[in-house]
Specification:
This protein is an alpha+beta fold. The two termini are 52 Å apart.
């Protein structure tokens, strides 16, 4: 048996590789793989992505020196000067008695309200069924939001509708007995539920039970004059993770106006003006967009590298009251049109546009570029242009030898 020489083996291998390469090239020419994106209207923003320090006019509320403290307010509740923020109990049994009393009072108010709604009621089964559908849908949406307050309220509304349906169709729901029983239980624990003292406030404002120890670290009155270095140092302090110890009961936010302080490159704010309104999106919460006023930092000097961009906002709720250091998106300008990868843009003659596959045939669609980034372009949508992009076109984002009229099978 003859052995194949090494040089002969190498030559055979080279021929096989060459044939395989030629076959692959021939296949790729005759079998072009196209990739598409559907043309839909989108919105993109010319924006500044940065980190912001939240500065509020807030005062910590000290906890009682001893005993057990129970807040009388929920997050986001308003309170006037001299109002009761919390109750102090000397023993755990007294605090538990109050918690039981409070729970019974909530149930009593619910059933008394339900009794008032159903008194003389003549609603039809169809209308209450429709209301139940609506309430259940609201409850499902509340669950998706992960907002405890919304979930609790939606659950209460759904339960309310279901009970009223029972009463309409004649099922026995003895509200009078339920209410009498709750009143008796409340009276039994009322005396033991009295607090020994109250914690009051010397100012009016909005209560928040969340404290992070940074409430007094920055001067609210001096927020508009902060420097980029001060903002960066403050953000570094917060993000270092060494949170100050706090034994406070909560805090009182004494002004609805609060600030987002950012240190940004000066050339990023050239199109902005102090005093103007601008939208700011919280990046960790896609559905939260705030309208803010630029109070300082937009008027930069030639040669200036950094600027302290200070934004003022007047929105306030329990969620916003907990913010301290946030990744934000400052939306400078909004563009609406057809968003496609930059690779989809072509030039046909003297016109820019994209290729779309229409019934297996390539069709060139004219398009004006209204905004671009490294990886995508935003194209104007003009439905009056017969040669322009149409909604739901299959825009070709990748393909070889594209030309108007070419047929792919």
């Amino acid at each position: 048996m003859k052995r194949i020489r090494m040089d002969t083996l190498l030559m055979i291998t080279a021929v096989i590789v060459l044939v395989a390469y030629i076959a692959y090239e021939a296949y790729s020419v005759t079998h072009v793989q196209l990739q598409f994106e559907t043309a839909v209207l989108s919105t993109v923003y010319e924006k500044i992505d940065t980190k912001a320090l939240v500065i509020r006019d807030e005062k910590p509320i000290a906890n009682a020196a001893s005993g057990i403290t129970v807040p009388t307010l929920s997050d986001g509740d308003k309170i006037n000067v001299g109002g009761n923020v919390a109750m102090n109990f000397s023993t755990e049994d007294a605090a538990s008695a109050y918690a039981k009393y409070h729970e019974l009072q909530e149930q009593l108010r619910y059933y008394e309200d339900l009794e008032a709604k159903t008194l003389g009621q003549a609603a039809s089964v169809e209308s209450i069924n429709s209301e139940i559908d609506t309430r259940v849908d609201e409850y499902i949406r509340a669950l998706d939001s992960s907002d405890g307050t919304k979930i609790s309220k939606a659950s209460e509304n759904a339960n309310d509708a279901l009970l009223r349906r029972q009463m309409i169709i004649g099922e026995s729901v003895d509200l009078v007995s339920i209410i009498q029983d709750l009143r008796q239980q409340s009276e039994a624990v009322a005396d033991a539920a009295m607090p020994d003292s109250y914690i009051t406030t010397e100012q009016s404002g909005v209560f928040s039970s969340y404290t992070d120890g940074y409430e007094t670290l920055w001067d609210y009155a001096a927020a508009e004059g902060m420097t980029p270095e001060q903002i960066e140092d403050a953000i570094n302090t917060v993000t270092a993770g060494e949170q100050p110890e706090s034994s406070n009961l909560g805090k009182l936010i004494t002004s609805y106006a609060w600030y987002l302080a950012c240190a940004v490159d000066a050339d990023e704010v050239l199109s902005l003006k102090n005093g103007s309104k601008i939208n700011v999106a919280l990046k960790d919460s896609d559905d939260t967009v705030l309208t803010c006023q630029i109070v300082s930092g937009a008027d930069v000097q030639p040669g200036q590298e950094k600027t302290a961009l200070i934004l003022k906002c007047s929105s306030m709720d329990s969620k916003l009251a907990n913010l301290r250091c946030e990744d934000i998106e400052i939306r400078i300008k909004e563009y609406e049109g057809i968003k496609v990868p930059a690779s989809a843009l072509h030039v046909d003659g003297d016109k820019k546009g994209v290729y779309a596959l229409v019934s297996s045939q390539v069709s060139f669609r004219e398009a004006e570029v209204i905004y671009s980034q490294d990886d995508f372009v935003m194209l104007a949508f003009d439905q009056s242009n017969p040669d322009g992009i149409r909604l739901y076109d299959k825009i070709i984002t990748q393909g070889k030898e594209l030309e108007d009229g070419r047929v792919f099978t």
